[in-house]
Amino acid sequence: MRIFMTPFTPPGETREKVYRFVRRRILEELPPTVREVQEAFRFRAVQTAREHLERLVAEGRLVKAHGKSRGYRLPREPGTLFVPLLGRVQAGGLRAAIEECEGYLPVQSRGSEEMFGLRVQGESMTGAGILPGDIVVVRQQAEAASGDIVVALVGDEATIKRLRLRGNGIELHPENPAFTPIVPRAEECTVLGKVVEVRRYLEG
Amino acid sequence: MRIFMTPFTPPGETREKVYRFVRRRILEELPPTVREVQEAFRFRAVQTAREHLERLVAEGRLVKAHGKSRGYRLPREPGTLFVPLLGRVQAGGLRAAIEECEGYLPVQSRGSEEMFGLRVQGESMTGAGILPGDIVVVRQQAEAASGDIVVALVGDEATIKRLRLRGNGIELHPENPAFTPIVPRAEECTVLGKVVEVRRYLEG
DNA sequence: GCGCATACCAGATTTTTGTCTGGTATGCAA
DNA sequence: TTGCATACCAGACAAAAATCTGGTATGCGC
């Protein structure tokens, strides 16, 4: 007569915990093996862990790569990618600036667009809640709509302003009464991309 | 006589590519196996991939968990963790709010502190560049220093204000002249945590 | 009782994966 | 020339991990 450890486990409760465990591990960059799940929950059999995992897959809460180690993943990728954080961008040197970036930022993104982070200098956009020292996350694109906040290369330095289309030309508007709009000639201004996110770190 | 495919590969060039490949894979959440590296570079022998990887470890550019599958990691963890994004927090229900969160935010963090994200309502902190709809990232802590921006539970709703210590008591200061400071009694106010980051998503 | 579901366990097989031993080719410096 | 480094290859072995087969206990509806 064998002893079976089958404490009163309400249906689904253990599975819920397994799901949370696996999700956390995946988000922390290393999905667990079936045996790691087994050990984490003190199952006596690998199969028990496997059954929970396969059930989660059947329910659509996880997806897996059959036969591969650590093959369980979250469905619909959370799509977190790391974009380079640039200190400043000088004329023409976006490529160079990306090579010499200060670090990387985790960013949520659906596509695999080319993006970068840029540290804000100056007070010209405080009216839009963008303060010196903030970081803007920029999606690289040469075109933008009127009203978008963009990063543009004017002269030999990148600047953050609100874009206004005026007939054929463009204007770059600060969001601070102490500054005046820039009306660059087309050939001396390049739109590097659109600001899609603003971040401010209050410590560290 | 065997034929060896040894094209002119400048020293370190292949290794650099291997490093980039592995780093990308790690950041995308599933570190490669040695054989996956082998296949990605069309090496005829696993050992070739292994030598590059071990070399990268020796150089300190990667670290590994010996004997574990997919055991290569980036040194000094980028320490990205995912924190729950809460819509609103009502009296006492921080735990409940975390259970029913709207989603997860990738956040850079050194420790494994308890954190959460909270969507900003109202204009009381616009002077600090915190606008309605912004997201604040909060580290849970019951104590905070004078001058910190905190999330506090006053009455039955969470609010974001700048904390001021006044003798024995506390004051919660808005950063907008149209609002007046709150001077709560100690028993009707709980500091949930300190705002460590502000985010604004400009699209989506 | 019966059938059926969930929840779990035991032991084995098969595949994947990490590791190891010993090799070839090329360039460089002593 | 020798020695030594890098860069690569071949074939194996052993550990780790996924998978499979067949079981026990408990509760629920009929």
Termini distance of chain A? 61 Å
Task: Provide the structure class of chain A.
Answer: alpha+beta
Low-pLDDT stretches of chain A are 1-8
Assign a percent range to the helix content of chain A. Answer: 10-25%
| Total E-strand runs of chain A | 10
Question: Which protein chains make the most extensive interface, counting residues with beta carbons within 8 Å of the other chain's beta carbons?
Answer: A-B, 37 and 37 residues
Strand content of chain A is: 25-35%
CATH architecture of the largest domain in chain A: Ribbon
Main sheet attributes: strand count, strand direction, barrel closure of chain A: 8 strands, mixed
- In CATH, the homologous superfamily of the largest domain in chain A goes by the name Umud Fragment, subunit A
Number of domains of chain A: 2
Radius of gyration of chain A: 25 Å
Oligomer: homodimer
| Count of DSSP H/I helices of chain A | 4
> Residue-averaged pLDDT of chain A, rounded?
82
CATH topology of the largest domain in chain A: Umud Fragment, subunit A
Structure described in brief:
2 copies of one chain form a homodimer. Chain A is of the alpha+beta class and 204 residues long.
